[in-house]
Each structure stands twice: as C-alpha cells, then as structure tokens.
UniProtKB/TrEMBL annotation:
All copies of domain Periplasmic copper-binding protein NosD beta helix, residue ranges: 418-511
Stretch forming the signal peptide: 1-24
Superkingdom of this protein's organism: Bacteria
Record protein name field: Parallel beta-helix repeat (Two copies)
InterPro entries documented for this protein: Beta_helix, NosD_dom, Para_beta_helix_rpt-2, PbH1, Pectin_lyas_fold, Pectin_lyase_fold/virulence, SCF-Subunits/Alg-Epimerases
Listed pathway(s): Protein modification; protein ubiquitination
Length: 517
C-alpha cells in the first residue's frame, strides 16, 4: 500500500515550482540549451558529453554542465544509466533527471558517531540556495548531503541506498539548513534490515540536524536500517502525509542536545506501520529540563510497530513516546496492534490528548505538570509507582480500566463524564479527587471505587455498579469525602465505611441487593 498525500499548501508550492521556476521535465522537451523566457535554459547533459550508458563515468561531464549553468537554468538528464561519483550543486541551478544516477560500489563508506557524513555523497550542497531537484538514484552513500543551505526542494524523486551496508549513511542529510523540503519522494534501503529485537544498524531515510523550517510531506520512507525520519536540535518542522514503514527503529524520532532549539513541530496525517520501535518518539530524557516543544501530533495512523520478525523490541508505542517535554497536543490519532503503550508520557509538563482511538494503554511515569485527556477511547490508563503529578484531568473518555498504584501523588485528580468499563478504581494517594458524572462498572470482589487514602474527595452524579459486595469502600485515611447525588447499585451493601473522618452522604440513590442469611 502506498500512502502519498500532499497537503494543499505543499501541493500548491510544488505546482509553483514546476510551472514558475523551470519547465524541464514538466512540459514538452526543448532542445538542449534553448531559452525559456523568464525561466532560464534547460541543459541536456548528453549534448555536453554525458554518455548515460551505465559504464562510462559521467561525473565530470555532468559537473561541467552544472558549473557552466546560469542562475535559473535546469540541468536535465534524459533516460539512461549515469555512473556518477559526486556532483556539487550550484546556487539557483536546478536538476531534473529522467534517467537513473548510480554510484559505484567502490565509494561505499561507513557511518560512525565520529563520521556522520560521507566524503562522497551523490549530491553535495554547501552554502547554496534556491535549488529544485527531481531525480532517480541508487547510491552507496547519501543521495544528498546539504550543509548551511536554504530553499532546496527535493520532489518526485526515487532514491535507493545500499541494503547490504551495516553502517549506512542516511539517504538525505540536512545539516544547519533552512526552508528545505522533501515532497512526493521515495527513500528506501539505506542500511541493512534489522534482524534482531536487541540490536539495530544505522541507516536513516531522512536525517535533519541543527536545521529550521524543514518540511517532509507526501513521501514513502521504507526498509531503512534505522529511522524513517530522525530530527536532532531542529525547529519549525512539518512532517505531514508520509507513509513510513518497515524501518529498523522509530518511524519518526526527535532528539535533543541544545533543547531550546527544538520547537514548533507538526506531525500530522502520517501512516506508520511495521517500524521496529516507536511510531513517534520525542525524547528529552538526557537534557534534564522539561522543554516546551509546541508540538501537534494529529491524524496519524499506526499499526504493528515495535516488532522484528514477530519478536517484541523494547519499544513500540503506537501514538507516541514523550519524555521530558511540554506543550504537546495529540489529537485524532489511531493506533492498533503495537507492542508498547499507545501513549507513554514520562517526566513531562503540559500534555493534551483528545479524540484518540487505540487498543493500547496510556501510561504515565514520573513527575508531570498538567495532563488532560478528553474524548479518547483506550483500554487502560496505567500510572507507575513513581507517578507524581500536579493535575490529571480525564473527561468524556471511554476506558476499560484505570490502574492507579498505591502511594502515588496527584495534587488534583479530576474524572468527569467518563465510561470506565471495569473496576475497581483504587484511590490510595496524596492529593485530591473529583469524581463527577462518570459511569463505573465492576464485578470485582473488592468493589468498584476504593477510597483508601486521599486528602479530599468529591463524588457527584455518578452511576457506580458492582455485582459483588460493596460498590464504594471508604478507608479511614480517606479525608473530607463528600458523596452526593450518585446512583449506586451493589450486590451487597452499597457503601462500606471503615471510619473515614468527616464523611458526608447526601441525596444518593442506593440499590442494595443484600443476600439475607
């Protein structure tokens, strides 16, 4: 299945580029070097000595055309196989290829932490701008390595790497670039396929480092050794409408060093399938400070992430893994069949999740500031034992179970108008509870709602049902409990009070089905 949907903005921009900047490859063929009024010339490389027979090295002939082109010209490669080493791009000179560019195997280099770009990419761009590229290529190193560039567009391209390289460079590498984009293209087979759930090999489709204003839209990124898209220390990033599948790590990963640079992300309408780690991973654990990334994660679909040949990897969240970040909204995402929780939130600030649909858990870990979940459908809300939050607000969700361990802290736990399909809900925490307008059903011996320990609790307008024993059990360490205007149905006594100080019961309807001895 191919999923390539350009956003209207991107599609319009592509039309402008195609019709307004150059004509090569978009309309009828013109003789080599013919003037196109206001658009520059189209320069056919065969007219300048390139062979395109797959045997002769055409690097010098094509480079000579690029070097001699005037601003606004388009270098054009007709059908054929062009053996090429490295081509250096020139500012304001475009490149369109119907033929296939191939790098010789002898140029193959290896990625390492110390060497994160090769010496021989197919295209090298440095401090150049205003370039349109549309091409087909098979490369052994990067298809393009661009540094300190601006306004470079790669569109409608088909780029394949070396699937036998265990330490592959990325297909596309943006470093310290701005206003660059990859649209409507396929990038695949950079790096060897992941074989083990315990290890992986480098090789990413698109790698963005220390850049701003990068758009990745309407592409297919698949079968790369590591990530589909990896972004580090970059901001103003739009990732929209891509089909990202069968990659060896996360479909989309955002990482930090100078965390203040990582801001303004739109990750929308992507399809993420069969990636060996998370669908989307935004990880600021190492930085030590919660950073406001201002991210929208919306309309994405994920399926079967977090597996290698059927074996679970340590990762695999369906909607996203969020660590050490704030100001994130997750809306209208769908996730099914993934390995790990659909949403994993660790040590974050303000997070909003609304209208998401998943068969995976929502899991909260560590300290957070304010988390709001509204209108979601998911099976399990799970807090780990170190959970420590200021506000957790759940409204109009449909959730099967809410698992809250003992001795957590939530300053304000607000549950309003939720459907909780399976109790008990255990409240044994530091903090305050407001439980209003919910439907809670349980068939557990312990009951439906257990108020063991809480600073204060206000229960109003709920429908609470338990088929066995008491529906609501209240411990002596549950303080300032008010239970007002609830409908409580129970297989035993509706309420069991173990000595809660200051307990208030008003206007409740109790349906107690106590079996007489």
């Amino acid at each position: 299945m191919h999923h390539k949907s350009l956003s209207l903005k991107t599609a319009f921009a592509a039309i402008i580029v195609c019709t307004g900047i150059f004509l090569a490859g978009c309309g009828q063929e013109k003789p080599a070097g013919e003037e196109q009024p206001g658009l520059g010339r189209r320069l056919d490389v065969r007219s300048f000595g390139a062979r395109g027979n797959g045997k002769a090295d055409d690097s010098k002939a094509i480079q000579a055309v690029i070097d001699e082109a005037a601003p606004g010209d388009t270098v054009y490669l007709p059908k054929g196989d062009y053996l090429v080493r490295t081509l250096r791009l020139a500012p304001n000179v475009h490149f369109v290829a119907e033929g296939v560019l191939r790098q010789p195997k002898a140029l193959s280099d290896s990625f390492s932490v110390e060497k994160q770009h090769s010496d021989a990419p197919l295209f090298r761009a440095h401090r150049v701008s205003n370039i349109y590229l549309s091409f087909r290529a098979e490369t052994v190193n990067e298809a393009i390595y661009a540094s300190q560039c601006s306004n470079i567009t790669i569109a409608n391209s088909h780029i394949a790497g070396d699937s036998t390289n265990r330490r592959s460079f990325p297909g596309i590498l943006w470093y310290s670039c701005s206003a660059c984009r990859v649209v409507g293209s396929t990038v695949s087979y950079y790096g060897i396929a992941r074989k083990s759930a315990k290890s992986y090999n480098p090789g990413t489709a698109i790698r963005v480092l220390s850049s701003r204003g990068v758009t990745v839209s309407g592409n297919e990124l698949h079968h790369n050794g590591e990530n589909g898209i990896f972004v580090h220390d970059s901001g103003d990033i739009e990732i929209d409408g891509n089909y990202i599948h069968h990659n060896g790590m996360s479909g989309i990963q955002v990482a930090f060093n100078s965390a203040e640079l990582v801001t303004n992300y739109r990750i929308t309408n992507n399809r993420l399938e069969y990636n060996a780690a998370d669908a989307i991973d935004i990880n600021n654990r190492a930085h030590g400070v919660v950073m406001p990334v201002r991210a929208l994660i919306a309309g994405n679909y994920s399926w079967k992430n977090g597996f290698v040949s059927g074996e679970s990897t340590p990762d695999g969240s369906g909607i996203g893994t969020l660590i050490g970040i704030s100001d994130v909204t997750l809306s209208g995402n769908r996730a099914f069949g993934n390995n790990r929780p659909a949403l994993y939130v660790e040590g974050c600030g303000t997070i909003t999740a609304n209208r998401n649909l998943t068969d995976g858990a929502f899991e909260l870990v560590g300290r957070w500031d304010s988390i709001r979940m509204e209108g979601n459908t998911f099976p399990t809300l799970r807090l780990l034992a170190n959970a420590d939050g200021r506000v957790l607000h759940l409204k109009t969700n449909r959730v099967t179970r809410a698992l809250l361990p003992n001795d957590i802290r939530i300053d304000s736990l607000l549950l309003e108008e939720n459907e909780i399909e399976s109790g008990p809900v255990n409240i044994n925490m530091e903090g305050n509870l407001r439980f209003e307008g919910n439907t809670l059903i349980s068939g557990h011996d312990a009951g439906a709602l257990l108020l063991v320990k809480v600073g204060s609790a206000f229960l109003k307008g709920n429908r609470i049902t338990n088929k066995k024993n008491a529906a609501i059990a209240i411990g002596k360490t549950a303080h300032q409990v008010v239970i007002d205007s609830n409908f409580v149905s129970s297989g035993g006594a509706a309420l069991h009070d173990a000595g809660s100080p200051g307990l208030q019961l008003t206007r409740n309807a109790l349906d107690e089905q106590v079996t007489q001895p």
